[in-house]
Amino acid sequence: MKADAPVAAAGVRLPLLQPADDPRLDRVFTIDLRLLGLSPDTQGARLLDVGCGAGRHELAAARLPIRTIACDLGRRDLRDGRFFVGEDGKAGAHFGHVEWVQGTALTLPFAPGSIDAAICSETLEHVVDDMGALRELRRVVRTGGALAVSVPARAVELALWQLSWEVTHTPGGHIRIYHADELLGKLRATGWRPYAVRRRHAFESVYWLLGALGGGGDPPCAPARAWRKATNSPRVRTSRAWDSAERALSRLLPKSVAIYARAV
Q1: Distance CA 160, CA 175 (A)
Q2: What average pLDDT does the structure give for the chain?
Q3: What domain count does the chain have?
């Protein structure tokens, strides 16, 4: 499970999301599918999500008339993803198809140029050969297709590495801290042309910093739990004012940086 998937990681049942064409981006998501060129009009497009975790982006993708391939190394995450997306689908709002595939970012089981758009969210910081993963994504995404990559934002990640032993000592955890310019350079070097940058999830920055200051551990300290409960409440999650506040704070204290790039 990825660290910035707060609702699924906390074991809270995900609510019915807004329709895929809602102008507001639900705070569960790091990646905006609209910036990948995906919409209710892109029928039949193929979306690949590498390092999908428990399928939070699939909750949005399933509401579009596209084929989504959710790929992760972890069997448990894939199992959880099938459950979460399946439960959401019982509301009858799914128009696309989601396929769940176990695999690694370095050897994707897809033909060259067979994917229209790809997501790699909160994954590269776990991968030893991140350049190899970006090259492999470029191999499978058609020329002109799009990629969205997100990684932990540098400032908060640096603080967490100093405050929390667990961040760097958990098996399979984070092995590097990116500067946005570094990631932009790696994308350009592997056949991608970046066209947009977004900063996301300031409320999650507060949660993780509170947890680290409280000594880390699972469950986290009481202040971190209280913050998570408050910011995941229906009143806050459906409030335009709170959404605007988090967007503004994300310019200063993002948890994640998302870069969108075109295959060239």
Answers
A1: 13
A2: 86
A3: 1
